[in-house]
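Build the 3D complex.
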Amino acid sequence: MSVSVAVTGLGVLSAFGHGVDPYWAALVAGESGLAPIRRFTVPPGAGPAAEVPAVETRAHVRSPLGRRIDHVSLFALAACRLALLDAGLDPTDLPLGRTGLALGSEFGNLDETTTFLDRLFAHGAANPLLFPNLVMNAPLSYTTIELGLTGPSAMLSAGEVSGEAAVACGAELVAEGGADVCLAGGADELGEVLHQVFHEACLLSSTPRPLDPYADGFALGEGAAVLVLEPLARARARGARVYARLVPVAGFALPAPVHGWPRDSSPLAARLAPLVADTDAVVAAASGEPELDALEAAALAAALAGRKALVTAPRAATGSFGAAGALAAATAVLAVAHDLVPPTLGHVPPGRHGLGVIAGRARAADIRVAVVDGLARGGACRPLRFEAP
Amino acid sequence: MAPAVVITGLGAVTALGGDVRALAAGLAQGRCGIGRLTLFAHTGRSGVAAEVREEANAVVGRLPPATARRLSRPDRFALLAAAEACRTAGLGPDLGRDVGVYVGTTTGGMLVTEEAYRRRRAAEDHRFRLSRLLGTPLATAAAVVSQALGLYGPRETFSTACSSSALAVAMAADAVRRGVVPLALAVGTDGLCRLTYAGFDALQALDTEPCRPFDRDRRGLSLGEGAAALVLEADAHARVRSARPRAAVLGWAVTGDAHHVTAPHPDGAGALAALAGALAEARVPPEAVDYINAHGTGTRQNDAVEIGVLRRVFGRRLARLPVSSTKSQLGHCLGAAGAVEAVATVLALDEGLLPPTVNLRHLDPAWDDLDLVPEAGRRAPLAVAVSSSYGFGGHNVSLVLGRMAR
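Done.
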């Protein structure tokens, strides 16, 4: 009963710029998006992070109401507009009641939340103009209002897999006939307080080395990525370019500490094995965080059982953030579309457990299937599977 | 043909008490759980809220003591309600592996986060302590429920303001209907915090007295807190394991207003589409609906728009169709509201008891022809009921629930 889901458009905001082209070009060239933080003052000794070049509100917001839009919502809206443009879909031609929207964010508008609390703590007064921006679904609200979308929508927050969760939600909506078009992806921002928290907890590294035995921490980042999803038949009928097919797979959870990573990699390996049995590329969750990387490397190696899939971990280049999985999804889509796997920055072979981690230069290969494994603290897994159309 | 989705377990932690029995009794008696705000100091206009008084720390499940000790209030509420729902559904440990967990929440552990931020800002703490921020990510409640109860199916957290857990119920039902999971646990949870309290008060959306939905003199909502949980499964699955369905989920729909970040669409266009869509999906004609559990916040705008939508869908029959607002007793539990009200609606269907709208002294003349079940619950046989939830940004969810044939 369910229909094939095509990915027909990508909108990406990354440290490499606005749009999918600068993103893919830089990722394939092995460039790093990390640079000294410019948006706010950091304590001495703080390392680099990946900041998105400023997004012009006026370029994306049309309604008078939208002028108060927050940073994360603007990221999401801009990525949606870029994705529609990339898909050759005019926002004014969308079937508004049949267009779905699924967005993910881990922390939402944390920056204005702290501004709001600052005034509340200092003066006992709250700013009524700021409050509407602080609800987690503000990106959903602004995007539906700006684009006029009245169809089904969902805001998801799933920690490190917030992006994957939203993409999967959108895929299910299209597969089951709930929408003719769906914009699905995620956004998170680099905020001063968030950076301070991670910096003071000594979790950050200046040189993240995903899947490398010498990994010593991750670097923060921000950005947004949105995929345009449509029934494959509809995409073909309108002559759209089809990057890849998104094949819905179920998410699952594993025994783990509530705030940490699963301690045992074998249940993860067992659940991943059928997913990666025929995969040509894996876009890994690894960020350089030692516990996550060790878990993922062991689980992937066991699941692949000697098969040589090409593994890449883009978070070293894009920075790590809750919705980074949406960028990982875009990476997998592009790997399938271009038969190319970008390198993992900071990684020096050999990889842990003999994994085929691509390092140094991008690797050209026939990529029929690419999997995003999607791992989050607390034991949630939200994998995504993309196949050549 | 898609399987019927039934509800076999219920759990609730509300201002009316720490379990479903207390909720049912409080609803039947028309008790109002809204009182003075005691959780934190607030210097604005309003000073009332529906607080959970229970010491909600009885359930630990498989959590290590150090984790259990640090749980935020809403995470405790969620775990308590989830454990009750699993217990009443008769779920043993053997069924855990494939149970999906679908949570709706808006602020998670914000009250703790606020205090950690205040301490750091005031230099009472010289660095942020992660141990004080563990409840900050919204996905924490789902992780707590999943790990404590050993539920390892898909895990999702939805946050669409006041419709969050109505969406979680809809998505859980959807997963069961599609066969993604044999069993799903839908949970809504939220705790009072300074952010939402001060925010709604600054918007002048809070009544200074306990809220009066549908009253002529209504001045706004009252915030509440709590959690509710529902176990959903395919009818056949429930029959095989001899679980008693309390009600069926007949249909649901999710729509957007695309209108305003806080205000509802003046004509209720999105709310109308959600209600009509859910009834159509359930294949239930409007004439078959016996009860409406309204969003009924008590703000001037919401109640007027909502009644307008109901009039358009049910026409003159609305005068004979009971409509009530559970928020008059439990306050507006934000992310938990949808699940709490779904539980209230299941109780109404299963026990044939209409929950009332309390604090209703002067019916608004614009709808003085309607039956808003004032002041005390009353007995009535019900077959089909609707529960609707509307969130900031114009996010609308309607659920159609039905009594099980006896």
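Chain B has two domains: 5-240, 250-402.
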